Amino acid sequence: MNREGMTLIVRTVTRISVWLIILYGIYIALHGHLTPGGGFAGGVIISLAFLNVTLAYGRKFTSRWLDIGLLGDIEASSASLILALGIMGMAFGGGFLANFLSHGKLFHLVSAGTIPIYNILIGAKVGMALFVVVWTLAITRIGEEEEQ
Questions:
Q1: 146 in any annotated domain
Q2: How far from chain centre, in Å, is Cα 50?
């Protein structure tokens, strides 16, 4: 029998845990200026949640569940926003990627100026880019005949 995905147990655990993994990735990206972690680590965690869905349910389900084109658009727009924020640092702060926002209060979530914004954008960039690369590898079948 040629079917995609894994057993019912794996699918059920994935259905429950994928949202917790995504939430944890968002937490790591948002709190990167206060705790170990940041945008890169949060983005990797979010992409691994999407990879988990792909492994548990298969490519066909994942292509219906996720809009892969939208993920590519998020990845591209986050890179553009990082560049725009860096240019705003040149205009308002004196150098590329300079912090031009208020630093806020020490050890609060809304602190550190532009660093939390960079963490969010880098998390989106890394998360979507890694998953789009894995998705491209998953749908590419070299040397095999196409399925009817």
A1: no
A2: 9
Question: For 42-74, what is each residue's pLDDT tens digit?
Answer: 999 999 999 999 999 998 999 999 999 999 999
Tokens of 28: 């790591």
Burial of 121 (0-12, 13-18, 19+ CB in 10 A): buried
- The answer as to whether 3 is a domain residue is no
3 state SS of 111: strand
- Residue 12: exposure state from Cβ atoms within 10 A (0-12, 13-18, ≥19): exposed
Q: Do the Cβ atoms of 79 and 73 come closer than 8 Å?
A: no
pTM: 0.84
User: Is residue 147 one of the residues assigned to a domain?
Assistant: no
pLDDT tens figures, 82-112: 999 999 999 998 899 888 888 777 777 777 8
